[in-house]
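Purpose: get a first structural picture of the assembly so the mutagenesis plan has something to point at.
Setup: two entries, given in the order below. No constraints added.
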Amino acid sequence: MSAPRASGSGEDDLIARYFRPLANNPGAFGLIDDAAVLEGRGDDIVVTTDAIVAGVHFLPDDPPEAVARKALRVNLSDLAAKGAVPAGFVLTLALPRADEAWLGPFARALGEDIAAYRCPLLGGDTVSTPGPVMVSITAFGRVPTGTMVRRSGAQPGDRIAVSGSIGDAALGLRLLKGAAGDGLSPAARGFLVARYREPQPRLPLAAALRNAASAAMDVSDGLAGDLGKLCAASGVTATVAADRIPLSEAARAALTAGVGSLEALIAGGDDYEVVCTVPPERWAGFVRQAAEAGVAVADLGIVAAGRAPPRFLEGRGQEMALPRRSFSHF
Amino acid sequence: MSAPRASGSGEDDLIARYFRPLANNPGAFGLIDDAAVLEGRGDDIVVTTDAIVAGVHFLPDDPPEAVARKALRVNLSDLAAKGAVPAGFVLTLALPRADEAWLGPFARALGEDIAAYRCPLLGGDTVSTPGPVMVSITAFGRVPTGTMVRRSGAQPGDRIAVSGSIGDAALGLRLLKGAAGDGLSPAARGFLVARYREPQPRLPLAAALRNAASAAMDVSDGLAGDLGKLCAASGVTATVAADRIPLSEAARAALTAGVGSLEALIAGGDDYEVVCTVPPERWAGFVRQAAEAGVAVADLGIVAAGRAPPRFLEGRGQEMALPRRSFSHF
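Result (structure tokens, whole complex):
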């Protein structure tokens, strides 16, 4: 990013107006340089990148504030799952036009999240596109050397935990797309839609994960599929008690109102919770540290030897049929 | 990026097939994790990000090999100008569909550049889009702590240097867009088009810049505008002798053939050369080190006190009129 005085252009003016005020970290050089600096401190830098596209990851009429929050938070969710503390991010914005009515609230909401999550804007690129709005963020976190929590460390016998509640966002999206949900209260609707639009990255859980988890990832494409990815990376399988999957009150009400099925929630997306595995001897400490961090964690089941996709068992011990396990772009 | 076995999907298959073979750096975890690690070594990490969009930064019918090279090299060009040694990159690919005939050659060419520039693929994101192909790369480099070459260090009296030759890419683009160029040889045409499609990042110049330059940036949006940005960031102005601007033989032939004017070349884009300022006492050493690195550098003129846009003087000392100084997206 750059914002010179001597050769003003639309792009530079846009950056100067909307984004320079957000870039007050010394490593950002006020966005007047071609690059940013992440200071070497001897720790490891964790790097993650996630893009969101209008019409694919968010609805074209979603409020710009929600787009800004989602773009940053889906990346912060990855950092949280890896046990990292946010260190900054770079932003690539592809826009069909420079629309002040959109950019103003987008930048304001981004600024609020930068402050709330202490994740400074370090740089970026703003390009025009004949296509839809796309927001691509690469985010950086720090962990002590060698301590990033990986996907591949789960061992048979480890317990499986998931944070928060599952399925809210998938139900919120169904409501936004016109599902009736007869009898669902406005408060429940509002909660589910907010869960779709505005992920809550579980950064307070990062230290507990670093201390206790053998493997972790964020749940973004559906619990069944993402736990399957973690198991595959670790060379194990898992057994999950479906009735232990944490559901919010609003999600229970929406299931009752026929907005979706439990199977659909397990394969839904946009949860931005953390699924992790914890060796039994560290379980009590993990639960205590999570509680101290203010993040609810549920005990879902157990890691087992084998290579099959994780099994989700109903109350009577019968395996649930999951016609679809996760979201895929292609 | 992820590529599980247990819950295969189109996106994961695509990553496993085309990109996992390119990600052999240990920090990439074979693309099966949600994040990559840049090892802490106590040095500074330089971060730069540049996106290219079909129909904006490259032509929709440009060969996929050229798109891959351009996407990575425009970022490497920034690292070179900052004096950094490449350390890796993450790739975000937005695709209207998973097209094997496009992805195969794209990934092959990217793999060649990864090896040639020793810049490992660390991770990324692949998303579907209803819009044009977009390739967004965030690249990382290393410099000894505190030594990144900034835009803002130019001082009155510093000499101005530019690497390689200016204007080739702008002429190549004009030819691709149908400019006649009567009498221009096929070899000259081929050279200019290649200069548009396949930037040559000046990484061999990085150490010389770190040792000698007071300020530097890469020339991507036109020499006049980019030198203006450097001067603005440094709070200075500059005087350039237009007849010292290095032109290739092919560019001279194209000017003679009426493909463009010198003014247009100075304001053209896609040069991906480095413009820098060097204090007089370090000039001789800079020129020697550049020669040892095999990169031609031309002495363009001098930095002066003031805040006006840089002046480009013709042979008789008259100031050139530059109706347009650089490319802008908005």
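Chain B touches chain A through 87 residues (CB under 8 Å).
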